[in-house]
Design brief:
This protein has one domain. The protein has 15 helices and no strands. Helix 5 crosses helix 8. It starts with a helix and ends with a helix.
């Protein structure tokens, strides 16, 4: 299956936006003046992840659900998702626990996370249940991965509704998805989508994941509309509109623009695809999961280092510099965890799964 490199690169850019948003918040802790975020409303990149995931899951797995036995396809799908997400999560959680113990011993306080109830909270984080309100979260950003796994569990049901032959059912599903997202935003000022609690965060994930599935459905149609959507004009126009909406800081409108951005970049085979297939953004996309999961541990560690080296409060320019350099400093470590932890573990578990499935087929024969 052809890799959609443009979407991989956009995922990397989105992950870096989250990192820059979080490091901007960290820099503010050591600066008396108010500093702007390096990326306005960078947390909206999480909403982009949800939309993108809905599209990619359909692109990668929908055909197997439509052509093969449902139970076998579903089991294989969930196993592959576990292999993709869990190994790095386990590594990061255990690393954070060790860092917490080291911090308590050296500094007299745990700078990485608050008090936990062992072993319950540790087990919940290892199983990625913390985003569902089960256990206290050790690694803040991981809440979104936790709730996204719920979307994977519901993927057959969501795809059955989004790709139903009965038009009334697909229309109703789209209305529910858009209406659900609107209802989440309506509860906050300026239609914000900042909720990360189990209910609000879960609603953000499921509605936007479904919108990503509808973007994939639109990609499967043909005609003049699809031809225009695949043009550079549509791709760059969609990106420009999305950036403008980000600057306006109306989260709901930004989120509703994401399916269009994903669709146009996925369909494009012209200049936009070439721009987003270049080595640097593509590398960011390749290590985006590592970048997203590990960066939170660097924030308190680098802040403690800056406070030790520069006890006086930072000026606005110094704080912004710290946020920028701190964000970029995580990238090499993300590259290392991807190549040394994430990729080897994924390939090892895939081989084991393939051997097990091969033995199962042999026994059936």
């Amino acid at each position: 299956m052809k890799e959609l490199k443009g979407l991989t690169s956009l995922r990397g850019i989105a992950a870096l936006a989250v990192v820059m948003q979080h490091f901007s918040t960290t820099a503010q802790e050591h600066c008396d003046a108010t500093i702007p975020s390096l990326v306005p409303h960078g947390y909206m990149a999480v909403d982009f992840f949800f939309v993108l995931s809905g599209y990619i899951m359909c692109y990668t797995y929908l055909a197997s659900f439509e052509s093969g036995p449902w139970a076998a396809s579903y089991g294989s799908f969930l196993k592959k998702r576990v292999i993709r997400l869990f190994p790095l999560n386990v590594f990061v959680v255990l690393s954070l626990v060790l860092c917490g113990f080291a911090s308590s011993a050296l500094l007299g306080r745990n700078i990485f996370f608050g008090a936990l109830s062992y072993p319950f909270d540790l087990l919940c984080n290892l199983l990625m249940l913390q985003g569902l309100g089960i256990g206290r979260n050790i690694n803040g950003p991981s809440w979104s991965v936790s709730v996204e796994f719920v979307a994977y569990i519901l993927f057959p049901l969501l795809s059955a509704c989004a790709f139903a032959r009965r038009r009334w059912l697909t229309t109703a599903t789209l209305i529910v998805a858009v209406g659900g997202l609107v209802s989440v935003a309506a509860g906050l000022p300026r239609l914000a989508l900042a909720a990360d609690d189990p209910l609000g965060g879960g609603a953000r994930c499921l509605t936007e994941f479904t919108l990503g599935m509808f973007a994939y459905r639109a990609a499967q149609s043909s005609g003049r509309a699809t031809a225009w959507l695949s043009s550079d004009r549509a791709a760059f126009g969609g990106l420009a509109a999305c950036i403008a909406l980000l600057l306006l800081r109306v989260d709901l409108l930004v989120a509703l623009s994401f399916p269009f951005v994903v669709l146009t970049i996925a369909l494009n085979e012209g200049r936009a695809q070439r721009v987003f297939s270049r080595p640097l953004p593509y590398m960011l996309g390749t290590v985006s999961y590592s970048l997203y999961l590990i960066h939170n541990a660097f924030r308190p560690a680098e802040l403690a280092l800056v406070q030790y080296l520069h006890p006086e409060r930072l000026s606005r320019a110094e704080a912004l510099g710290f946020a920028f350099v701190g964000s970029l400093s995580v990238i090499p470590f993300a590259w290392l965890t991807y190549h040394c932890i994430e990729l080897p573990a994924r390939e090892f578990l895939r081989r084991k799964l393939a051997r097990r499935e091969g033995r199962g087929l042999g026994q059936q024969a």
